[in-house]
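Researcher: We're teaching a course module on how sequence relates to structure. For the next exercise, students receive a sequence and then see the predicted structure as tokens, so they can try to spot secondary structure elements on their own. Here is the exercise chain.
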Amino acid sequence: MSHRPEARAASTTGSGARSSPPTPEVSIRLLGAFTMDVDGDPVALPAGTQRLVAMLALRGRTGRSRLAGLLWPDTEERRALASLRTGIWRVNQAAPGLVVAAHGAVELGLAPVVDVQRLIDRSHALLRDEPDDEGLLPEDPGEGELLPDWEDCWLDAERERLHQLRLHVLEATARWLSDRGRYGLALEFALAALRADELRESAHRAVVGIHLAEGNVVEARRAYDACCRTLHDELGIEPSASLTALITRAPGAAVALHVVALAPERHPVSATARS
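Model: And here is the predicted structure for the students to work with:
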């Protein structure tokens, strides 16, 4: 009796002669220089193709004509669309199935791991007050700038989005740590927000609030006075009534005002843990 039919069946269902190849694992880094890895190996892409991948990673599904116009703004539509087709082909040569074009739109396939999206997801979890209390300590999300060597206009909105998200995360993390009595580290996050935008009153308020929570009324008064000087010198305005009330209603505020008035002016220094 012949066993060839059984062997043939095994080759198609068991050994996988007709099975699909495994889906490649793709990771894309946009914070800092652009890099893309496929199954752990770096893949080199031309500059124009990198921009195609980066835009889809940041914006998701995008209409074909709009995508071509954003990536090649100084090129007539016909040539821009031709460049887009070439870019899609080149990406899929490096990572088959990474760019999917269908029904007049283009998007990423293969569910790549994108560092910016992971950062956004973690930041949103923190802003929803869902940090892991005993797990990884919240991190400063601003260690890498979004594609700093690229001058594309379409990146401006994405950079501003991440900048604002970082500021909110820094302030939220400072509050989260302060609520748990970790004042030194909380102050590091609050001061990081202040360095990122010295005209941001909510960052000044975070610094003042942490000093008050720790019982350092004089330090809080110094931080408040620094805020007053900065806003007055740069914008010609005074702090809000809520920030002023925060310091004037604090226990020992009158004594703190007297001490600060007598003390020589000093430059702010980096925070150190006092708890």
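Model: If you want an answer key for the exercise: Residues 155-179 form the longest helix (25 residues). Residues 1-14, 258-262, 267-275 have pLDDT under 50 and may be disordered.
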